[in-house]
Every structure is written in structure tokens, then in C-alpha cells.
Amino acid sequence: MITKELEEYAAINSTPESELLKQLWRETYLKVLSPGMLSGHLQGRLLSMLSHLTQPRQILEIGTFTGYSALCLAEGLTEGGILHTVEVDPELVEIITRYFKASAYNEKIKLHIGKALEVIPNLTGVFDLVFIDADKENYINYYDLIFDKVKPGGLILVDNTLWHGNVLKKSDKGKETTAIRAFNEYLKNDVRVEKVLMPFRDGLTMIYKSR
Ligand SMILES: C[S@@+](CC[C@H](N)C(=O)[O-])C[C@H]1O[C@@H](n2cnc3c(N)ncnc32)[C@H](O)[C@@H]1O
């Protein structure tokens, strides 16, 4: 939604990504299908900053892909903190675990392979920060499923909430666009939370659970 040049300008004028994250970005683009799903430099730095500001003890990520955003979110974990990340595709395990092991956060990250709707009910404890970034059709289900597991004062981040701008295209009745529109409407009506749909990258919604 902003030009590639402007996004590059913003990235150049932000904290650089680590060599490891750069390598993961490169390997994902060389070897993995749909590499554009990876958060990337600018969003990665934003996730890291929000995690640092939140100082989470427990993070939940839904949709690991190759592990880029998990590594960014893990940067803000407190001493003894843990990040649970859920991914349905077992073919991604090799690359994910290789990069987790090469990072400073391997001991703080627990990877769960399976469908998020089946994995999450088995996770115990309270989350300070949740990042929803998996199949769009289940966004409302994920939101409902995690809501009571988020502590009051916690932060929920939801990715792709502008869906390449397609949310405004009335002719687009695709299942993902429809699901994102439905999620945005559902969230708008939820008085339990404060929310901002930020026109950042593909749309990133920040939700503050005020009660
Ligand atoms: C947009 S990508 C995640 C990108 C990653 N968070 C990042 O920023 O680098 C979405 C991921 O969700 C996974 N996914 C899709 N459906 C899922 C499900 N039902 N349960 C868990 N993961 C799922 C996909 O396999 C894909 O790897």
C-alpha cells in the first residue's frame, strides 16, 4: 500500500535486522513457497519493539512460517519468559528449528506443530502478548479462543487486516477477504478492548485488552 521505495526508505532509517534474521529472510525467499508471508525487516523491528515495551512473560504466536516473527517477538521476553508458536506445516520444522537453535532464544521458544485450534486449548497459563498470523478464515475463532487466556492489560496483534487493500474492493468476495472483513467488523464491536487498525505494511491491528 506504500511504494516499495518508501518501505525501503523506512527500513533503512530503522534499526537494522540482525545477520541471522537477514539470513533467514534470504533462505526463505530462496527455498520456501510464498516467502512474502514472512514479516520482514520493518514489521520485525516493530514486533520486537512492541515486545520490549510489553515485557512479556508468555507470548503466543499463531502461524510460525519460517520463524522470523517468533525470533523478533522473543527479543522482548523477560528473564525466564517463554514464547509458544504454532505452525500447521511439518515441512517447515527443519528450517524453523535450525534458526531457533542458531539464535539466542532457542531455550525460550516452544514450537508446536499442529492445527492452532487444536493446540491452543492445551496451552496453560496467561499470555501477555499474542500475535495472530495464520489462516484468515479462523481469525475470529482464534480471537475468541485466546481472549480469556490474555491477561488484562495484555496486547493482541493481528496481521494482514487490510489484506492488500482488498477489504475495500466490493467485488472481492474471496474467502480470505470476506474473513478479514468479518474479523475487522467483529473487533470493531468488541467493547472490551481498545483497538487501532494501523495501515502498516498489510494492515496490523493492535488490540489492548483493557478489562
Ligand atoms: C503469514 S504466515 C506466518 C508468518 C510469520 N508469522 C512471520 O511473520 O514470519 C502464516 C502461517 O500460518 C500457518 N497456518 C495456516 N493455517 C494454520 C493453522 N490452522 N494452524 C497453525 N498454523 C497455520 C501457515 O502454514 C503459515 O506458515
Tell me what the structure shows.
The structure is a single chain. The chain is of the alpha/beta class. It has one domain: Vaccinia Virus protein VP39 (Rossmann fold), CATH 3.40.50. Helices cover 38% and strands 21% of the residues. It has helices at residues 4-12, 19-31, 40-54, 68-74, 93-102, 116-119, 139-147, 175-188; strands spanning 58-62, 82-87, 109-113, 127-132, 150-159, 193-198, 204-209. A 7-stranded mixed sheet has the order 3-2-1-4-5-7-6, with helices on both faces. Strand 1 (58-62), helix 4 (68-74) and strand 2 (82-87) form a beta-alpha-beta unit. Helix 3 runs parallel beside helix 4. The N and C termini lie far apart (33 Å). Bound molecules: S-adenosylmethionine. S-adenosylmethionine is lined by residues 37-39, 63, 65, 68-69, 86-89, 115-116, 133-135.
Brief characterization of the structure:
The protein has about 210 residues and is of the alpha/beta class. It has helices spanning about 5-10, 20-30, 40-55, 70-75, 95-100, 115-120, 140-145, 175-190, and strands spanning about 60, 80-85, 110-115, 125-130, 150-160, 195-200, 205-210. The chain is built from 8 helices and 7 strands.
